[in-house]
Amino acid sequence: MPQFSQAISKLKASSTVVFNTRAQEMKRQGIDVVAMTAGEPDFQPPDHVLEAARDAVDQGLTKYTPAEGTFELREAVCGKFARENNLQYTPEQIIVGTGGKQILYNGFMAVLNPGDEVIIIAPYWVTYPAQIELAGGVPVPVSAPPETGFIPDIDDIRSAITARTRAIVLNSPANPTGAVYPPEVVISIAELVNEHDLWLFADDLYEHLIYDGKFTAAASYARERTLIIHGASKAYALTGWRIGYGAGPIDLIKAMNRLQGQSTSGANSIAQYAVTVALNEFDKTRAFIDMTLEAYRERRNLLVSGLNRMGLKTPNPRGAFYVMSDLTVIDPNENKAALRLLEDAHVGVVPGTDFLAPGHARFSYATSLDNVTEALERISRLLN
Ligand code: PLP
């Protein structure tokens, strides 16, 4: 067979997908697995957004859109930033893509040269190092330990900066830990970026999923150097619709647009029209978000207290829908521990190996309260 590229040969399948696939496979075999693996809301999207998608189909809004996204959606995104973050952008500073993931990818491709370093906070979302390497860069992890609630120490980030550093990735609320950084940490990271003339990739996908405290927009403190990565997947339960958006300095957005124009030609038209409505009729969308937040909060409280009671040390995260739990009472090796949870307790979690979280696993509570209760009972039976 002819050869594959070096870049693709190095690329690993995401462990989230691997464990999710195994959990689904067990389900198909009739084994009743409580899957706490997935990174997506278990809610249906809000009615007004579903309605808007139907309208778009009925109106025949099914053609190619501009590669950078429809003007209306980019305008609606500007409205979102002004309303919620007090950040003023023009539509030229907005790009719409196929999920936040693609915005991130366009961003790394636009700013990295071979050997450029990108600082990422560990435990990290596995996509960061994978995309950085695909773009020829070198991921440089800085550890945020469980004792701090997975909040990084700014001095550790500063020490990781070298002459090759090109960017820092900030993700708060974070996947996989649920950590929400205090404002002073976000501001200090923005200051570092300004001081060293770096890019700040602010992955704000989980902005709306905060249970205690408020969101801090890093872009407010490093406007000229920040690419905001955002989208409709998490807060509006629109994962499969694949709409993400980015905001940043105009030249960066233009560069990302050039790549997008030659790669995907832009995002799905129907979903773009529907997300425009989600942003423009925000009172209804906000009501939906509030409803889901209350449900997540109840599940988080139950899960965190239940796991800690059983000796699985778990910081109480303030955001997203994940907790990162120490599994060493089951097995010091997180892969073996996660496998025992799956095969013996029929509870699916994602081992921390690929997140750089040894001894730990990620539990997603984007699943019903009944499932959370059942998972805790099963783990308790496994331990007794
Ligand atoms: N950023 C983080 C931290 C995520 O967890 C995800 C999805 O899991 C994304 C970005 C991208 O989401 P999407 O491509 O669905 O918009």
Describe the model.
By secondary structure, the chain is α/β, with parallel strands linked by helices. It folds into 2 domains: 138 residues, Aspartate Aminotransferase, domain 1 (Alpha-Beta Complex), CATH 3.90.1150; 220 residues, Aspartate Aminotransferase, domain 2 (3-Layer(aba) Sandwich), CATH 3.40.640. Helices cover 43% and strands 14% of the residues. Strands 2-8-7-6-5-3-4 form a 7-stranded mixed β-sheet, sandwiched between helices. Strands 9-12-11 form a 3-stranded antiparallel β-sheet. Strands 1-10 form a two-stranded parallel ribbon. The radius of gyration is 20 Å and the shape is globular. The chain starts with 5 loop residues before the first helix and ends with a helix. The mean pLDDT is 96. Bound molecules: pyridoxal-5'-phosphate (PLP).
Q: Largest sheet at a glance?
A: 7 strands, mixed
SSE-based structural type? alpha/beta
What is the tally of beta strands? 12
Order of helices and strands: HHEHHEHEHEHEHEEEHHHEHEEEH
Bound molecules: pyridoxal-5'-phosphate
SSE layout and pairing:
Blueprint: H1 6-10, H2 15-28, E1 34-35, H3 47-58, H4 71-85, E2 94-97, H5 99-111, E3 117-122, H6 127-134, E4 138-143, H7 154-160, E5 165-170, H8 183-196, E6 199-203, E7 226-231, E8 244-247, H9 250-263, H10 269-280, H11 282-309, E9 322-326, H12 334-343, E10 347-348, E11 350-351, E12 360-364, H13 369-383
Parallel strand pairs: 1-10, 3-4, 3-5, 5-6, 6-7
Antiparallel strand pairs: 2-8, 7-8, 9-12, 11-12
Pyridoxal-5'-phosphate (PLP) is lined by residues 39, 99-101, 125, 171, 175, 203, 205, 231, 233, 239, 244.
